[in-house]
Write a structure and sequence with these properties.
It is a single chain. By secondary structure, the chain is of the alpha/beta class. It has a domain at 5-85 and 208-320: 3-Layer(aba) Sandwich (Rossmann fold), CATH 3.40.50.300. It has helices at 47-54, 81-87, 99-102, 109-120, 126-139, 145-148, 158-170, 188-205, 216-222, 240-245, 250-257; strands at residues 5-16, 19-31, 36-40, 62-71, 74-75, 92-95, 176-180, 208-212, 225-230, 233-239, 307-310, 313-315. Strands 6-7-8-3-9-10-12-11 form an 8-stranded mixed β-sheet, sandwiched between helices. Strands 2-1-4-5 form a 4-stranded antiparallel β-sheet, with helices on one face. Helix 4 (109-120) runs parallel beside helix 7 (158-170). The radius of gyration is 21 Å and the shape is globular. The chain starts with a strand and ends in a 6-residue tail after the last strand.
Length: 321
């Protein structure tokens, strides 16, 4: 079966007065139908740029300069502006990091959910859209949805605002949902509630998900597969079990070691030595080489490609080649 979304050799550059920032470099992955793929990595590694590229939301000075993105066999990069706008919100939806910043502060939340329906289905009556919006707000666990739909974003807690965003993105029953750090602004208790709600709704709507987060615990609970990015490159991808239990890339192993040990709270926190390299440098070597404990001379002069290990587990490292 063909994947729902296929990204091949994607390159994104941001052209500044100081030079070109190599934000994405040959990024490739796919998402199957009704699958949740998580993308992990440090801040600035290219996770959000990847999600925005899928929806053609890269704005100047940024440019998509190579590669392909296919959704259900359709070439997204070859679509007209009108075609991609019709797709956004209907077939592919996106939940941004800060729900209160994404909601219109001067519009009632119920109307904002209903508006999403009206945009993609003009034949729908306003009353029908309002009724469907109220039903969706109830589905995401908002009590007394009729009354809550009349509130403005500033009258909602962070958890409630996130539920409204989830309702807004799922009300059109999209085939793919991109969730960019959907729980980063929430406390642990509300985060657990949102994740449980999220998983249940995804199963009911039967949509696929691209989950972007720096929280490996969230990925372990939510995702089917994990892709690990570093400095604009995909370095490892595979099932949750394979990547978290048997990580093959030195960066993935280092990343897992930085996770706090809840069973032993006295254990000191670890960090990866060194710094992320400048993305303005030519990418003709392994970007993790300056921080890697297993670096070889080859790593400093040649960029590794993805090597196949087993059962869809792939890694970009000469140690596994």
């Amino acid at each position: 079966m063909k994947p729902l979304l296929s990204v091949e050799n994607l390159n994104v550059r941001f052209h500044t007065l100081r030079g070109a920032v190599h934000a994405l470099n040959g990024v490739s992955f796919h998402i199957n139908r009704e699958e949740i793929l998580g993308i992990a990595g440090e801040s600035g590694c290219g996770k959000s740029v990847t999600s925005r590229a899928i929806l053609r939301l890269i704005e100047p000075p940024g440019r998509i300069e190579g590669g392909s993105i296919h959704f259900e066999g359709r070439d997204i990069l070859g679509m007209s502006i009108a075609e991609i706008r019709r797709m956004r919100g209907k077939e592919i939806s996106m939940i941004m990091q800060e729900p209160k910043m994404s909601l219109n502060p001067v519009m009632r939340v119920g109307y904002q959910v209903a508006e999403t329906l009206l945009i993609h289905n003009p034949s729908l009556t306003r009353q029908s859209a309002r009724d469907q919006a109220a039903d969706m707000l109830s589905e995401v666990g908002i009590p007394d949805a009729g009354s809550m739909s009349q509130r403005y974003p500033h009258q909602l807690s962070g958890g409630m605002a996130q539920r409204v965003m989830i309702a807004m993105m799922l009300v059109t029953r999209p085939k793919l949902l991109i969730a960019d750090e959907p729980t980063s602004a929430l406390d642990v208790t509300i985060q657990a509630q949102i994740l449980d709600l999220f998983k249940g709704l995804i199963k009911d709507v039967r949509t696929s998900v691209l989950m972007i987060t720096h929280d490996l615990g969230v990925m372990a609970e939510t995702c089917d597969r994990i892709a690990v990015m570093y400095a604009g490159n995909m370095v490892e991808i595979g099932s949750v079990r394979k990547v978290l239990k048997s990580p093959s890339h030195p960066y993935t192993r280092a990343l897992l070691k930085t996770v706090p040990d809840n069973a032993n709270p006295d254990t000191p926190l670890l960090s990866i030595r060194g710094n992320v390299p400048s993305l303005m440098e030519p990418q003709n070597s392994c970007m993790f080489a300056p921080r890697c404990d297993h670096v070889m001379d080859r790593c400093r002069h040649e960029k590794p490609h993805m090597y196949d290990l087993q059962e869809g587990h792939r890694v970009a490292c000469f140690l596994r080649g």
